[in-house]
Amino acid sequence: MGWRRSTEHQVHDKIMHRSWFRSKAKTCCLNRFQEMRKNYVKTVSGTNVLGKCLATSITVSDAPMHRRTEQKIAMHPRSHKNSVASFSCLSQSEDIHMRKTAYSPYFATKISFMTVSSTSECFEALLRSVSRGEKCDLPAHSVTKLDKNKLNRILAAAPHTSGKNALLRGSNFQNVIFTSEAIFSGTVFEDETNFTGATFESITNFNKAIFKGTAKFTRAKFTSATSFYRTEFIHKAIFFQATFDEIPVSSKAVLQDLPSFHRKIFDGATFRRAIFKGEANFAKAVFNGGANFDKTTFKKTADFQEIAFNKLATFSGATFQHVAIFHRADIKNLAVFSRAFFGGGARFDESAFGDETNFKKVTFEGDANFNKATFGLTGPTFDSWSSFHNTVFRGMAHFNNVIFRDKAYFDNTQFTSKACFEDTKFEESVCFDKSNFASKADFKNSIFEGKTDFNKTKFKGETHFNEAIFGLTGATLGGRTSFMMAVFYTHAIFDGVRILEEIDFDKAIFKDTASFVKANFERNASFRKTKFAKDPDFDGVNFDRKTNMRQGNRHNWNAKF
To answer: How far is the C-alpha of 242 from the C-alpha of 248, rounded, in Å?
Structure first.
């Protein structure tokens, strides 16, 4: 039965059973305490604790600081199972900051232990752990802040590679605050590296660092210049909800064009919902795995020129408030920009888009430059496509000298300013159904080899299809071209156009002049119920005899049938 012992008896128990507890506990409970210690470290690492705890110093037989501390034991083998026993390491002039509870399987008795140590003792214990090649786990050693001097001591204590670069194993900097410069240049991070919730208050430099395991920067905050120049991520890099503040002028003098991931190599990276308040530099970076920038915000210039995405690249819902540069970008797999917002100019000139390209419901507030870009893979493809469905171009849309090797969709697209498709080549079908060209539409010298649809499209500015070619030359069959129910509000020019397949302008409306000078219709052309506000100019046109000009006035057009 349970009974309450007096204070004198408790003191007696401490003395009489101290050696007994050590021997029995060491032989019977050592494995349990080791398990408790691991759980203790995990608990401290994931919790916002008050004070300092050195969980790795806990043992059953003794404590690392046994020469300076007094151990107090209060336990009896026949004591009640609910009685409390304490195993404490009490250091002089230090406060108790943490208490952890567990259960001994041998005695089925609740055991609680407490550990304390000063900030300096915690850091020295961390250095000893790092120097032995063990994990660099700052939360487990209750280190919450690092200045430049302490970080340099950690890197100096760590083992080094043959190239004299610091080698950190199992690095955990979760919620650590870097109060001064954080220079990890050339550091090799073995295993998984955790910077979740870390705050970098000054210049941050990971130039030429190597992350051999997953690198976690979730909710990390970079308040000053940040550089990942030529950093190599062997596995995935996670920057979910990370924040990159605008760079102070004083910092720019030290590290130019930052935050910088210039020439960096990623196996896979997540920047989802990250915020770049300053310029973001990813120029010439390489993503060997998936790249996720969904709902990421770029408040200043975002530089992705000559970047290489070897797998999925997704910018769905991303916001580019300033200029976005994807000049000569190489996207070999699926590219997703759906619902993205480009507040400044967007440059995709000379870029190569591979499998599928998704620009659905994107808004371009500034000029969009896709000149000399290539969409689609070379060789046989299986139903690949490029889509600008429901996209809004408020600035000029430049698609000059572009090659679409796959299906292209511009249906319901809004072109508020000039749209340029001069010398563009569509090798597969293309659809501009219900699109709206509010200003000039220029398709001069373009080639449409597949099925082409401009049904119910509105051309409110001048429309130029001079010298354009519809259909394939030779024996290979192309596709029908349709301008059914299209509306041309101003001058429409089809001079010198070559129609190699069937084309119809049925129910189309020309509200101003229409010019087809020297056009060549080699297959059936249909103008049934087409309305011309003014007599069209068909001077020198060559029509196939099956051409349907119902409601037309052939003898005034000087056309050849």
So the answer is: 18
Query: Same domain, yes or no, for 165 and 294?
Result: yes
Q: Who's near 160: CB < 8 A, 6+ residues apart? A: 166, 167
Question: Residue 289 — very low, low, confident or very high, per pLDDT cuts 50/70/90?
Answer: confident
Burial 435-444 (b: 16+ CB within 10 A, else e): bbbbbbbbbb
In this model, does residue 88 exceed pLDDT 80? no
Instruction: Among 301, 316, 333, give the residue marking a domain's end.
Output: 333
Q: What residues does 393 pair with on adjacent strands?
A: 364, 415
CB proximity list for 19: less than 8 A, separation 6 or greater: none
Q: In what order do the strands lie in the sheet with 70-73?
A: 70-73, 85-90, 110-115, 98-103
- The answer to whether residues 300 and 243 belong to one domain is yes
Between CA 136 and CA 187 the distance in angstroms is: 13
User: Are 219 and 240 in contact, with CB atoms under 8 Å apart?
Assistant: yes
Range of the domain at 288: 121-333
Phi-psi region of 492 (alpha: psi -120 to 50; beta: other; left: phi over 0): beta
Q: What percentage of the chain exceeds 90 in pLDDT?
A: 55
